[in-house]
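retry 2 of 3: previous attempt timed out while embedding adenosine-5'-diphosphate. Reduced batch size to 1 and resubmitted. Inputs unchanged:
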Amino acid sequence: MKLDVDVLRYLSKDDFRVLTAVEMGMRNHEVVPSELIDRIACLKHGGTYKVLKNLLKHKLLHHDSSKYDGFRLTYLGYDFLAIKTMVNRGIFTGVGRQIGVGKESDIFEVVKEDGTVLAMKLHRLGRVSFRAVKSKRDYLRHRSSYNWLYLSRLAALKEFAFMKALEEHGFPVPNAVDCNRHCVVMSLVRGYPLVQVKQLQNPGTAFETILGLVVRMAEHGLIHCDFNEFNIMIDDDEKITMIDFPQMVSVSHRNAKMYFDRDVECIFKFFKKRFNLSFEENEDESDDSEIDSDEVCWPRFSEIKKVSGFLDKELAASGFTGKDQEDFERFIGEDVQEDSDSDSEGTEDEEYIADSTNESDIKDFDSKCLLKEEGDNTPEHEHGQIEHGVVEE
Ligand code: ADP
Ligand code: MG
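retry 2 succeeded.
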């Protein structure tokens, strides 16, 4: 999806106010009735309707009249809300080129006022697993606030919390800068995903470093769960950085051993195939089997010695709670695969909540509305400006 930040240049405070009103409404409506948007936004003289038209034109909203007249945010609309908040907080001033397309994310370069370039990851949950998510309908029905915004926000929050905690324990991860909605800002890793690297000076050293990271993470109570050549970056000095953390689990997870072994196996397989390292993979299921290997020992999950209660303390401090983890795992857990071909065309309508105006939404909007967000002291009528892709207040 193209992120045309130039559109930001044309957006007024009223545009952002209405966009935020739709976001508020989506807490309990998959499609937000126009009348509710108007009540939340509180613009004078029916101004909301004109603004809605403008937002629709720029593809920041999607209009849906299948059941009643209403709107929902598009990913682009959600992107703009997050970007605006980051700019208001002074995290960055401009958005540059796209540097990565993940399974469920888009990654862009962003630039700070002093010229430093950072990486911005926009989570796009639902791009791949929407069908699987829908198949969790039974659970979702009890969650009025469910939608893809919620899941993407949770993915970002989890990624940010884990990155920060890993960084604090000296793991080679990007520096976690900030997180808002579905957006995580981190330092830019100078290097390439390992999958793109055809030759290494010291493949054995890289292999041992990488395997050592899996073990050390497990000692700290964590398993990456997607530890492979796509999520390991390596630079010209063959320095390793790990990325991509939304799927991490605790070593106390019921399938921890399976995840741990899978991560280890990915590394063994990749180094064997790409760099011809000489060792055999562990084909035996049993923990006690002799590994047929020249020098390298297949790390065993049962032999990992935990060093601290890492997860509980530090992750909670970053705002990612056990409840968040539980929610997230329900959707993103290992049974996604098996569910993915059932119930693929379910009707979204079933999940609509009664379309009454919710007073608490309005109150919430007044206290949290974008115009009053931290760091944003711009007078109401001034427009956000972008010059050459740089957002300026
Ligand atoms: P996904 O969860 O969708 O797989 P990733 O976090 O793995 O997303 O990012 C996808 C790609 O974007 C990576 O393979 C990498 O090329 C690039 N990328 C991600 N984070 C950074 C970063 N901090 N610095 C540089 N490139 C990055
Ligand atoms: Mg990835």
